[in-house]
Amino acid sequence: MDQQYEDILEKCINLGKLIADTPVYQEFKKAEYNLLHNEQARKLVEDLQTLKKEHYLKKMAGTELSKEDEEKMRELENVCLSDSQVFASNNANNNFQKLMETISGKIREGIQSIDK
Predict the structure, then answer these.
(1) What pLDDT is attached to residue 115?
(2) Which of 14, 27, 37, 42 is nearest to 103 (CA)?
(3) Coil, strand, or helix at residue 33?
(4) Taking the model in full, what pTM does it have?
(5) How many C-alpha atoms does 98 have within 13 Å on its Cβ side?
């Protein structure tokens, strides 16, 4: 491995440490921990993930989702978001994903500035 590649990887590690120290990441980890330790909220999320997987598999098999399928999904999503722990976890996850998308965008911006 050449030195330039090693330097890039070292900067990635340092970036990861900086990200882990942000309030956005800390809130994400706290919400994740709280969700995992709340049996009711965790079950709601697991049920939603199972239903989403079933819908995905139906779509991949070429089966169109029925109105009942779509309504069941909406209802379960609403039930999930009405749970305060699931809601907090969802918000923290969304905020963290936005941070990561912004970081990725800035990396692309740096690459594109060299490509010009």
Answers:
(1) 80
(2) 14
(3) helix
(4) 0.80
(5) 8
